[in-house]
What does this fold into?
Amino acid sequence: MTTKTQSPDTKSTGKTNGHLIAVASGKGGVGKTWFSITLSHALAKEGKKVLLFDGDLGLANIDVQLGLMAKRDLNDVIEGTLSLEHVVERYEDGGFDIVAGRSGHGSLSSLPPDRLNNLLKQISNIVPKYDVVIIDLGAGIDRTVRFITAATDTTIVVTNDEPTSLTDAYALIKLSHAAGHSNNIKIVINVAEELKSGENTYNTLLKACKNFLKISPPLLGIIRQDKRVKEAIRAQTPYLTRSPNTETAQDIEKIAHTVSETIMV
Ligand SMILES: Nc1ncnc2c1ncn2[C@@H]1O[C@H](COP(=O)(O)OP(=O)(O)OP(=O)(O)O)[C@@H](O)[C@H]1O
Ligand SMILES: [Mg+2]
It folds into this structure.
């Protein structure tokens, strides 16, 4: 994890060995949680030590998609009853660790800055124990989302081809750019009908970034749509376990491979 900002206050934590990735989108429902889980799984299958962190505290997505009953969760950390490392649980089916959220217990977005800073410090302390830590963020571009994305090595902005999704992804990039953190952003186009249309979607976003912000966030990957994604979520089974041989699985594995190469550097 690299410190790139004056605020949040991560100055004291310095550089670590692990790689911290935030998954954000602006618009909700574009597949952040499914992507975070499936990327974690793909990286674990590559032999990487992965921690997946539910940063969407109010809605606790990860445990729902995987059918987990977490005994401890992030709320315990925020309330100060447990330290972050004590709420990490092993998800054996995926071969990675998880910090669960808890539905209905407020939202990270309403956390006061000192609590958020404290949480971020605990995250940065845990990052060196892993090859990759992935934070699945909630929808929106609120203070918490901007605060966390500013402190990561990579922020993956997920979008699909819907105008509202593209507009919100652009708004997130614009705010990051205004705060001086846009150079950690990479783009994932999800639910693409085919690779070509995914490229077109990326080019639309890229054009806006180039024209108005004078930046060119790179494409990390395109993920094709597959109705089996919904089925896997419904069955609360990891997609790569249920449907390992699909084009969509290949798309995720390709992204995992690129991420692996990045973190080896
Ligand atoms: N590649 C894909 N192909 C088909 N359907 C997909 C794909 N990715 C995601 N979906 C669908 O999108 C829905 C929303 O996914 P998910 O809950 O992961 O989104 P999210 O961005 O985390 O939402 P929120 O902003 O509410 O947290 C899933 O239920 C799934 O059916
Ligand atoms: Mg989600």
Summary: Residues 1-16 have pLDDT under 50 and may be disordered. The pocket of magnesium ion (ligand 2) is lined by residues 32-33, 56, 61, 136 (CB under 6 Å). The first strand starts at residue 19 and ends at 24.
